[in-house]
Amino acid sequence: MIRTFLxxxxxxxxxxxxxxxxxxxxxxxxxxxxFFFFFFMKATTVVRRTRTAFLHHLRPLTKSLLLLSLxxxxxxxxxxxxxxxxxxxxxxxxxxxxxRTTAPTPSWETLTATFGSLxxxxxxxxxxxxxxxxxxxxxxxxxxxxxxxxxxPFYRRHSLRSYCVLVHILVRAGLLLDxxxxxxxxILYRDSASGSPAPPLLGTLWSTYEAVVPGxxxxxxxxxxxxxxxxxxxxxxxxxxxxxxxxxxxxxxxxSMLRVAVKSSMNELAWKVFESMLQRRVYxxxxxxxxxxxxxxxxxxxxxxxxxxxxxxxKKCAPSVVANxxxxxxxxxxxxxxxxxxxLKRMLQKNIVFDDIVHSLVIHSHCRMxxxxxxxxxxxxxxxxxxxxxxxxxxxxxxxxxxRGDIVESAKLMQEMVSIVGLKPYDQTYNFLIVGCFKxxxxxxGLTCYEKMREDGFLPSSSTCNKMMGALCESRDVNKxxxxxxxxxxxxxxxNEETYLVLIDGYGRIEEAEGVVKLYYEMEHRGLNxxxxxxxxxxxxxxxxxxxxxxxxxxxxxxxxxxxxxxCIYDALITCxxxxxxxxxxxxxxxxxxxxxxxxxxxxxxxxxxxxxIRKRETQSLxxxxxxxxxx
Length: 632
Description:
With 632 residues, the protein is mainly α. Among the domains are: 2-65; 97-209, no CATH class; 216-298, no CATH class. It has helices at residues 2-14, 20-74, 84-101, 108-115, 122-131, 138-150, 160-173, 176-187, 201-207, 217-228, 232-243, 251-263, 267-279, 286-299, 302-313, 319-333, 337-350, 355-369, 372-384, 391-403, 407-420, 427-439, 443-455, 462-474, 478-490, 497-509, 513-525, 532-544, 548-560, 567-579, 583-595, 602-631. The radius of gyration is 46 Å and the shape is flat. It holds the Pfam family PPR. The chain crosses the membrane at residues 20-41. This is Pentatricopeptide repeat-containing protein At1g66345, mitochondrial. PPR repeats lie at residues 250-284, 285-319, 355-389, 426-460, 461-495, 496-530, 566-600. Keywords: Membrane, Repeat, Transit peptide, Transmembrane, Transmembrane helix.
């Protein structure tokens, strides 16, 4: 303002007309005024430049003073160090104050220039992060976290606790992508010094939960991150860990675990996740049901479950009901009866299953436990509540009576089911009756029941077929068992290895070696690769038939498949050699057995010892006869 005023006065004086006497005065005064004006202008320019330079040099000085203050607080006197806690707190206050007052998020260059010479520690970094735990400062905390591990020369590795603290901060601020990235690093975290796994992530994340303002969203994020990394076991452990501490995972987290478990063919784990979900009262949605239906399709159990539900309810039900029934039946089959009944009650309270299905499954559970009294009481309750009896319930009672050996009562229930109630038995009903009849020695009744089953268009299960043929083979009616198997195969039955083992033992029982060999080659023809159990059975039964040469051929086949002979095989071969009088070959098998560090059974050893003792006595007797003849 002063400069402007002087310049205006000077301009006015230059244009004024005066007396000649005064012109000389004007000229001198103008020269003086011009000199003063020039000097003033120059002085103001110098002052302005000096101020700019002063401010330019003041900033580094301020930073130096800040670092000096930090180092003074950290160790004011080398001979008398202050407590670590006070030093860490003071330094963290200064660092966090600087970060909070910086308007934008500071760059790494700014942090390096300001704190590059500062010695960072795990407690100091954690304290700075906690000072910046409010959502507006979350990005600054993240920038300081990354910078401290990359640019600071004194600090190269964060602790797992620092990871967890920052994850809590980021989740609270809604920075989920950054939090997920840090969680992935924390899941793979290993100790930098020893290379061993870090302390448990779940416990560390839980211990830092109270340090930041609480929020359970981070636990869901951990479960979903583990599922995304296909670490379903860890995700399920995390879900159980935090659920035991009062934080139940969300439906999205459970669906994430289910989806990855099914895609990874971890079927057992998928069923555990589904069970845990219902036990914690997190009920499925359409995505959950579709995942479980896909799982049952992969296992091949969907058609059977749909049939069970239709037999109980009388008509088709929603896929969610099928999935729930499949889970309960799985729990009951594992012997966890009480857990299955409790889960059914919860389902009924939530109205996600029908009353008749709940009553039927509870009766099934009591029958599996053998508690027929409770099962009949539940049956009366079912009828009193207006639910009609169904084929599934009758089959449960028939199976329970057959397990007790009460075939008469089972037959009465079968008659009541068909004639009075008008229900049709299905394959499982016949399976229970056939097994019960053959188990109690009623083979004629069992075969009659099988004929009815065949007329109704059903085939017995593999276990039922094996029980039938085993009973026939024990009664030495092996040809009948073989004919039964041939008839079933023609109707579409697929035998398993156990089926052929039963028949092979049956032919060995009647000492028919040709039947044993035919069954072996039939297995190969049908694409069933004979395993070590089948080869062992063939060798042992050929030895029973006194066919040592054929047994040794199959022993060579076993060795070609790099399968080691068992003690039972060597026992059978030694016994067969002794029965044929082949002492030398028996001793070879015995030596081979001891080289393989196998101990023969008592029967095989005694057979070999008797054979050698008898042979020695015969040799001594022959020598005595020869010596006496020479004397004569």
